[in-house]
Design a protein that fits this description.
Layout: E1 4-6, E2 15-17, H1 22-33, E3 38-45, E4 48-53, E5 58-62, E6 72-77, E7 81-86, E8 92-95, H2 100-110, E9 135-137, E10 143-147, E11 154-156, E12 169-171, E13 176-179, E14 193-195, E15 200-201, E16 204-208, H3 213-219, E17 220-221, E18 234-238, E19 254-258, E20 266-273, H4 285-296, E21 310-315, E22 325-326, E23 338-339, H5 353-366, E24 376-382, E25 389-398, E26 401-411, H6 417-430, H7 467-471, E27 483-486, E28 489-494, H8 512-526, H9 534-542, H10 551-555
Length: 556
């Protein structure tokens, strides 16, 4: 009996089967009907053919005369197509080239193309696809752009986008598209921009392999939808959630992800918000984002140099409902976090910072770890593909005592995800740093003494908090000085023209005064009684580039 290996893109592991089942044949028909084509074909022998489809699926098709053993009577491979004839039912014809024309005509029909505002050329099969309104092709005839913004498209998007291997952008914003987004949008080229904002879409979950989560969550631009459809959510979930072979993490399950090797050990707790039980599959969606956040913490200086001082705990915090509140649409998530809440809208259930503290304490202590005294540092990942981040600093109750908790919140979007972790947690929550950007201009005045290390009311280069760095020739390349404006305060000054605290993008870094403050706080927590020394920090910071200043340089 022949052995068949069958792979479904919605499941990230291979399943060895003795014969193709009706369910598998149905899936193959669905993919072919959605214009998936064969990107790779391997003819093993006269009766066996291995096929990789543009939908991410892999099939091994086997044929033979025994109906009990083989699903197909015959398999005929050609340059243009592969025809698999089952013992029962219609033949399945798998194209070897993308049927772009067929896919576009299906899109036209499904979205009521006759009512489009602009439809010049559509349906004219003789003039070439590049003559169709909104379609651009490359020199080989492959579609690169589909631009149908504000064109009165109506109805549900058909599942046809497996047919466009070179698509760079598909712009369908400002129409009246309804229903869920089709799976094929998740299998477009890695850098393809998909804009479906301001439609009437319904909440959609796209299941993809773990490695495609960041690409898909970044490429699909879907917020906001039309106002009355603000209940829309897009979830890009790991396909492991569909078949969790290793089970799920129970609620409040805690695991030590990284163990301190030096000092007293500084605890960081990584928790989820808006992930339901299904998404807490071992190796699934929540796992991906919480582990990614934990790894991101130590992907930038000075945290990468201080990694040995930290314990990182990942805690599974289930929500009854998937997602978080956003725009004017509230959701009953575990801790009540609200992303992009409109001004003037009051939440019936405010953010539960006490609940965050309790979950951390319960998870850690139940797992037999030490829930340390002092400030509680939390990285919270909110289950939303809408970009956003914030930091909360609050007082909570630990039985009869008051405790301080600092919570940095990031959403599950790949747009500068690591940089947002660095900015919100590394800068605000742990480093106690202030924003250095001026959102909306310099429109307010700071009226109290600032204790933040990266901003100052003083403008004199010889008197600012970071005066030593300005005078130190070893930091000349950083161009540290006194720059007007921080956090939109006209009378605050910052150390550098730009930095991670001014622009939370992946290519930005903490400036030297910010690195020094993070270093100071970490060392004081790890080694009680430790005192900051500027020259020791410079040695730590510059590493192999360090050199001592001679007396003349020090005097200068």
């Amino acid at each position: 009996m022949k052995r068949i290996t069958f792979f479904i893109a919605a499941i990230c592991y291979s399943v060895a089967l003795m014969a193709q089942t009706p369910q598998e044949i149905k899936l193959l028909r669905e993919r072919v009907g959605a214009f998936a084509y064969a990107t790779q074909v391997e003819q093993v022998d006269a009766n066996n053919c291995k096929i990789t489809l543009s939908s991410g699926d892999n099939f091994t098709l086997c044929s033979g005369s025994d109906k009990a053993k083989f699903a197909f009577k015959s398999i005929v491979s050609g340059k243009e197509s592969i025809t698999a004839k089952p013992h029962k039912g219609k033949p399945i014809v798998i194209d070897c080239k993308p049927n772009q024309e067929g896919a576009l005509l299906t899109l036209f029909k499904a979205t009521k193309g006759k009512k489009w505002s602009r439809k010049s050329g559509w349906g004219n099969t003789k003039s070439g696809l590049s003559s169709w309104e909104g379609i651009t092709c490359d020199s080989e005839g492959y579609v690169t752009d589909i631009k149908l913004k504000d064109n009165n498209l109506q109805g549900k998007l058909p599942d046809v986008f497996y047919a466009f291997p070179r698509l760079k952008q598909i712009i369908l914003a400002d129409n009246n598209l309804t229903g869920q987004l089709p799976r094929s949008l998740a299998w477009l080229p890695d850098k393809c921009v998909i804009d479906v904002k301001n439609n009437q879409l319904a909440t959609t979950t796209l299941y993809v392999p773990r490695h495609r989560i960041p690409t898909v969550s970044y490429n699909i631009k879907c917020y906001p939808q039309q106002k009355e459809y603000s209940n829309f959510r897009l979830f890009v979930d790991c396909d492991v959630d569909l078949n969790p072979v290793n089970g799920h993490y129970p609620d409040n399950h805690c695991r030590l992800y990284h163990k301190a090797t030096e000092g007293a050990g500084i605890n960081i707790y990584v928790v989820g918000e808006g992930f339901d039980k299904a998404e807490y599959a071992v190796g699934g969606t929540a796992d991906y984002w919480l582990e990614r956040a934990a790894n991101a913490l130590f992907d930038i200086k000075p945290f990468s140099q201080l990694k040995g001082l930290f314990n990182v705990y990942i805690i599974a915090t289930h929500s009854q409902t998937r997602g978080v509140s956003q725009y004017d649409n509230p959701i009953e998530s575990r801790f009540g976090y609200w992303l992009k809440k409109p001004k003037g809208v009051k939440a019936e259930r405010p953010f539960q910072k006490q609940g965050v503290f309790d979950a951390c304490k319960e998870g850690v202590t139940n797992a037999g770890f030490d829930f340390k005294d002092g400030t509680v540092f939390v990285v919270m990942i909110a289950n939303s593909t809408q970009y956003g981040g914030v930091e909360y600093s609050r007082t909570v109750r630990d039985n009869s005592e008051k405790r301080h908790i600092r919570i940095a919140i990031n959403s599950t979007t790949n747009r500068d995800f690591n940089a947002l972790v660095w900015h919100e947690f590394g800068g605000h929550a742990f480093g106690y740093l202030l924003d250095e950007y001026n959102k909306g201009g310099l429109w307010r005045t700071y009226k109290k003494k600032t204790t933040r290390a990266n901003v100052d009311l003083e403008s004199d280069p010889k008197k600012v908090k970071w005066a030593k760095f300005i005078e130190d020739p070893r930091y000349a390349e950083e161009k540290i000085g006194v720059f007007k404006g921080a956090c939109s305060y006209s009378n605050l000054y910052r150390p550098t023209e730009t930095s991670l605290m001014r622009s939370n993008r992946m290519h930005r870094r903490f400036n030297a005064p910010s690195r020094a403050e993070i270093y100071r706080r970490a060392m004081e927590l790890a080694y009680p009684g430790w005192k900051f020394d500027y020259e020791e920090f410079v040695k730590f910071d510059l590493g192999d580039k360090y050199y001592p200043l001679d007396n003349r340089q020090q005097e200068r």
